[in-house]
């Protein structure tokens, strides 16, 4: 296999050979021994009887009598009852399409029979391109909303914009003036939230409002009609998220994902820049009233008694697991589902608290009326691999022999897909345990087993030396030597300092923030995924100090907050821990810059929703813009590239996806996995597409903003497609 793939890319690079990379035809799963894992969820509340629909009834708001609790009398909305949700179809009113975040549209005007006729309806440019200081730090990743005749979006540095959905003519823009020094790893804004104030009259200002979180940690609310700040929200349309966090260090605490709004409460976490220090900003989750901006509640997992703002001079618990990605809510149940990451130091856990170990890398169902946990489900025990939950969860009515069950789909970076009863957190399929390797620098702390899903995994078989690959024979030899030099005992090989260790899958997945799409019409789940390892090594503290590795708060004093453009984990100091970390993301050869493992490096798969069985699995991405030394091959050979961004599925029988590093957007037949249309984007398509309808015409939109980490061209384009006006 390795020699055939080597020959393939050699041809792609013009070095001569004739073989083609075969498609991935069947799902390969880990061969590690497994046993049943008895506990699948940990309930933090007593069970609540189900109502007639089988769903948990709404919970009335609790009294605000606990220490630090918010004053409910100051809150402008009634959280005890569900609010109206908006349907996906002509509109795309939520980041994930509809309220269940299925990234699915019932529109079918564009279908397998006519998708080849798609043409560009318009291209809109946000005007938000990196300044000289921000070069190498842009990764827009945005998906617009559509309501009525307007598209709503945020640019990479949080400029809020509305354009006409049929023409691309700008309606308004609001610039919150985010500074370059606020950029964490990337200038990213994945989306915004749309909210209708049920208490306001139709003519009232900010009856409908657009809400975003910013890189400099603010919540911004503007009138959806005019773009003017909502005067009744916080301080003239803005709420600071730095309150209770501690000293403001730009770039350390930032919001890159859209919030969820459930029962009139804006629920948000924040991205805490990984690997800097154990004394990092808190991962506290907070709820704010969507009308007034007042704090409704706070959930500090290590200090649950603190349900409001900390006392003067105090902070929420520092260094705790955070939620950097998008949550999703269930209005009827009154629950919001939070995909949590791990503690602020990813690759050493010896100083973590019991609370951190309990809640890290878990899906947490929080009661939005009170801010208290209902249940949580942990996907990694004692996570030392940065396997934080990056995907927005997806809600489905899951088919079973006993009828449909309200469920939540939870993708993970290690490739496992879990199906959980969203009322209780119980898994609808067996949760297995694999015997985890021991060793590393803290063998006494490691979990002896790790959970895996019996429903489905995107994870492939364990690596062998034969899987080591190269763009040249010398490259392949170098990679095989590095394989022999490293510690590798399969899935969950623990971090080591004596020599490098191989982490497979790497921290980009499996599934990352693009999440999955569900076609409820055909009962199909679509997931695109990465299939590359990381090559890591812990660095002893003395050596890290000699190398000058300092956390962001110390660097900010020396270089005015300038943040070097580097991959996550590539020389992170992990201050406060005995080790720093160096991560070679994607395990790229130092000779050519190409991955050390054989392609494909990414794919897209269709899964039978009811059974979890693979329907088809194909590589995603061509060699067009990939090659050694950063030189593009220009050859359209499907090799499967790393990808970043999610899929969209429609009732027209199509999956639309960009994400790969070839800068193409594709339409794939949902039943066969075959590409039936594609177009070249003006910049990298590391975003999730969306679709909508205006005056009976269906449109397809994708943000082409590029991605510094994925090394695709940076841009500020919103590219919108439609069938020709006279097409049927």
TrEMBL record:
Residues 57-73 have a biased composition (Low complexity). The keyword Oxidoreductase applies. Residues 1-26 form the signal peptide. GO terms for molecular function: quinone binding; quinoprotein glucose dehydrogenase activity. Residues 27-45 have a biased composition (Polar residues). Residues 92-699 form the Pyrrolo-quinoline quinone repeat domain. Its cofactor is pyrroloquinoline quinone. GO terms for cellular component: membrane. Gene3D superfamilies: Quinoprotein alcohol dehydrogenase-like superfamily. The keyword Hydrolase does not apply. PROSITE patterns: PROKAR_LIPOPROTEIN. CDD domains: PQQ_mGDH. Residues 27-94 are annotated as: Disordered. Keywords: Oxidoreductase, Signal. Belongs to the bacterial PQQ dehydrogenase family. This is Quinoprotein glucose dehydrogenase. It comes from Breoghania corrubedonensis.
